[in-house]
Amino acid sequence: MGMQHELRIKTPVALPCCKEVPVSICYISSMSDMPYFRKALLNKPLDHMSDTPSFPDSSRWEKAQEYESAWWKNVTDIYDTEYLERFASDIEDKLAKTDLNISEADIIEVGAGPVGIVSCLRGRRRVATDPLDNLFESVDTYHRYREKAREHGVSYMEAKGEKLPFDDQEFDLLITDNVLDHTESPDQIISEARRVLKPGGMVYLRLNVYHFWGRFIRWLMELAVIDRGHPYTFSSGKLKAMVEEHGFQILSSHRAPFLVSWKKDLSRALGGNRKALIQALLFVSRAQHELLLRR
Questions:
Q1: Which of 45, 157, 263, 289 is the most exposed place for a label (fewest CB within 10 A)?
Q2: Which domains does the chain have, with CATH numbers?
Q3: Model confidence at 36, in pLDDT bands (50, 70, 90)?
Q4: What is the pTM assigned to this prediction?
């Protein structure tokens, strides 16, 4: 990390749904980000803030992937698949209320990470894809978990969600958990999901979302690429609108209350978590939004 550089914006900012408010300070993480910040600021005026900012720098996704690679390498000592088993059981309970027979389903997970939720699901065919697949294969901890999953029929593949190497209408169920905000093109991933699903196929999608103020703070952070791992920020409304634009029917939609998320951040902050402290003080706590979709 280089020296931090302070940028003061004294001009009031016109927000889409409220009066002008002053923006005080945001920080540039390193000198190398200064040209990027200037370009982003000129090409994305503050009074045109959107839920999913799009900047002209084509290297943004590569920065996110570098962050992800480092993150996964740093958590090998504490990685465990127990939470995947709990999560998979919860998904199966939700799908049991639909007409999908998961035991006979062809299932794909997009952005599966080292092992994937799909490894803990029943299914006729189970495929886990991730652009960092080669990294996970090279790390002993993840490789051991994968070998056990392979013994039970799970296959792993390096692939971007924006361009899945499968035929049209090949799967019954697609899973994507905490993925869209890390990607190069969330819109293209939803398009690909529809393409590879059979008619009547289903999507289980979970994503962290923000309220208006949180999105605005995240927008400022993205100008300076402060959070390298998350190029995109979503609201619940934007997420639902995007999947509906691609022809998906929303079967169920649940978002955790933001107040509950804020209280959790505050509790973690009192335990010494600096990131949670910043989120709580700035009121930018995120909440998980869960969608069950039908093609």
A1: 45
A2: 5-294 (3.40.50.150)
A3: very low
A4: 0.79
